[in-house]
Amino acid sequence: MKQTMTTPRQEELMEQKFRDAINTIVPSAQLHAKWLNSLSLMENTGARKISRYEDPIKTNIIVLKHAAEEARHAYYLKKQIEKLIPAGYPDYASEYLLAPATSSRYLYKLDIAACRYLKTKFGLKDRDLFHGAYLLVTYAIEVRADLLYGIYQEALTQHHSKVNVKSIIAEEEGHLEEMTRMLQDFHPEWQLLANDMIAIEKKLFSEWIHDIAKSIS
């Protein structure tokens, strides 16, 4: 499966679009609260997907740790909303999210792409397919999280926000190291697989940021 690679210029423009969106979102309590709720939704989706991938017997402590931390991130982000809107948001209904359709489908689309990729390229199926998809999707998301939360925290600091995501940044960095080790054990050409998945994720991220920008304009 050949992936369309983004050029350095395209990546630069995408990152700038994200920075512009964040610097519009953070000063607005309403937009910022919806942004936090959208991130919480995505972290919660990740936690649920990890649980879906877990083998009923061969689940190691790293997978358990990862699932627990993703769920905690979802809770932490949800609680941060109360610093902006004391009543908070009751759930993940569309009216409480930014770009609700894209935010809700982001991880599902990446998951489907990973399963299709592994099935087509390596003929994997059943538990082997689930495990491989978990590794690739999580790796790509952790690479993205490193950039996303880093830029977000910069904006929070710049705007003197009561919100902060420093604890999430530290844990996501640990996740990336763990996923790298697990991918190395999974396949000798793990870097090639990871790069293909990152290329897929970049396209989905670009679509998501485009819809976020539209929703705040």
Mind explaining what this structure looks like?
The chain has one domain. Helix content is 77%, strand content 0%. It starts with 7 loop residues before the first helix and ends with a helix. The longest helix has 33 residues, at 126-158. The protein has helices spanning 8-25, 29-53, 61-80, 100-122, 126-158, 166-186, 190-216. It has seven helices and no strands.
Write the layout of secondary structure elements.
Blueprint lengths: L7 H18 L3 H25 L7 H20 L19 H23 L3 H33 L7 H21 L3 H27 L1
Helix pairs in contact: 1-5, 1-7, 2-3, 2-4, 2-5, 3-6, 4-5, 4-7, 5-6, 5-7
Number of strands: 0
Helix count, DSSP H or I runs of 4 or more residues: 7
Over the alpha carbons, how many angstroms does the gyration radius reach?
17 Å
Largest sheet: none
Which overall shape is indicated by the principal axes computed on the Cα atoms? globular
Distance between the termini: 36 Å
Low-pLDDT residue spans: none
Q: Average pLDDT across residues?
A: 93
Give the number of domains.
Answer: 1
Q: What oligomeric state is this?
A: single chain
Concise structural overview:
This protein has 217 residues and is mainly α. It has helices spanning 8-25, 29-53, 61-80, 100-122, 126-158, 166-186, 190-216. It has one domain (18-216).
Keywords:
single chain; 217 residues; mainly alpha; globular
